[in-house]
Please model this.
Amino acid sequence: MNKENEILNLSVKKILIIRLSSLGDILLTTPFIRSLKNKHQSVQLDFILKKQYQDALKFNPHITNLFLYDTPKENISVLISDLKKEKYDLIIDLQNNFRSAEIVKSLKIRTLKFNKRSFDKFLLVNFKINRLRDAPSIPERYSSTIPNFKLDDEGLELYTKNNSSDLINGKEKVIGFVPSSRHFTKKWPKEYYGKLGTLLTKSGYTIALLGGKDDLAICHEISEKIVGSINLCNQDDLLQTCADMNECKVIVCNDSGLMHAACAMNIPVLAFFGSTVKEFGFFPYKNSNLILENNSLSCRPCSHVGRETCPKGHFRCMLDISPEKAFKAINTLIENR
Model:
């Protein structure tokens, strides 16, 4: 009996998967969820995530119950009480931090934990010792929590139900711009987005600005600089954003959760990687893509999550990626589609 069958034996009927945040990390679990359900169809899969990310898995057909994690202590107590009633046979902890540890400790059930390779990330960021050069993607690393488990050949998934994009319908040459990211050093400059939009508009494309409530200001500012652009930034309606993405030929974005959302919608992606690098495993998964990054810098990566300022002061990881270079990359993606 191999390790997978030993773990997922006939006595395992219900599995609880934990990945509380963030959007991209949760979407990157979907190949594992799908593959696990398809290989072990009789097993019930439940999932815990933070409330603000529920749309990522809300309509996922492979999940039976979706539990929402809230931070107030009294809410956590109620959640754990509900989880105990489910009588799970196995927990797969893909978060592996103090929050998920609180849940695991309370349930006292056999648990498999995701190896975050924190020390390897520390070495790469601080000493540029790269032990992640040949590291697999995050979906593959999630799946390795079960020894010998193999993913299928499909990409990410995000189910939107019947959302439509009324403002884009009828326009044939739409490029989506997603200028958001939580951290400054992961953002391609807004001025560059404006210049790229002008280049694309002159070539007959319409630019659609996409994002959530934290991106309203930047999307408005960029849209004002691009003639004929459509500002579709909304109040964190992920399903609507994905429906809008579905009308685009290419999504231009930073290394962000919405980059993974675009991949889940199977839309070609042009992504800018600044302070982060592909070795961390969060690159576009099984989707047509091009990544633009400045590989000439010895200071990259300066963080595995992003920073609020450039520690060197020059921000060349992003400033050296010109709008003209991005324009050529978009044409390449469209030609190869």
